[in-house]
Amino acid sequence: MTRVIGKKIGSYLFSLIAIVSLTACELGADDPNNTAITGDTPIDEQTMVEEVGTIAIDLRAEGREFYLDGEEEANPTIFISQGSTVELTLCVTGGRHDWVVDEFDVATAQIGQDDECSMVEFTADQTGEFEYYCSVGNHREEGMYGAIVVE
Fold first, then answer.
1. Do residues 130 and 67 both lie within one domain?
2. C-alpha to C-alpha distance for 132 and 55, rounded to whole angstroms
3. Structural domain of residue 77, as residue ranges?
4. Which residue, among 129, 74, 135, 79, has the nearest Cα to 104 in the 3D structure?
């Protein structure tokens, strides 16, 4: 009799643990406070994109520096999840510039402030830290570069 009661309690306890575990996994699924950036949302500097998807990045080139659209920090480090498709648009507000990342074999057209913006698309298919830079003249040597970190 004690053995049967012990098995029943053990069975109920196992079921209770399973239900609590499954419920905990589901709690974050529709959380409105979830701040992962996905879809066509532009990313901010120092932001880690937690889910794979298409990431839109709007950069402007001004003087010898790059800026994320709406931000003031020059040459920001951009964090991206491996496997994300990146759609980067470069607009120039002064001078002639481009945007290049050798490891992803990607570069915008060289454009000036009177030109249209230039867009490139690539897949962040390898992890690591990669330098982006302007290849016009000696802009890179003058500090026109930053980093993309793919995790």
1. yes
2. 17
3. 54-150
4. 129
Query: Is the pLDDT higher at 58 or at 14?
Result: 58
**What phi and psi values does residue 142 have, to the nearest 5 degrees?**
-85, 5
Distance between CA atoms of residues 83 and 97, nearest Å: 27
Same domain, 11 and 62: no
**Mean pLDDT of all residues in 43-51:** 47
SS3 content of the chain, % helix, strand, coil (to 5): 20, 35, 45
SS3 11: helix
The larger pLDDT score, comparing residue 72 to residue 3, is at: 72
User: What is the DSSP track for 65-79?
Assistant: EEEETT---SS--EE
CATH number, domain of 112, equals 2.60.40.420
Cα–Cα distance, 34 to 20 (Å, whole number): 21
Structure tokens at 117: 């913006």
The fraction of the chain above a pLDDT of 70, given in percent, is 66
Q: Partners of 118 in the beta sheet? A: 90
What three-state secondary structure class fits 147? strand
CA atoms of 60 and 71, how far apart (whole Å): 10
- What is the domain count for the chain? 2
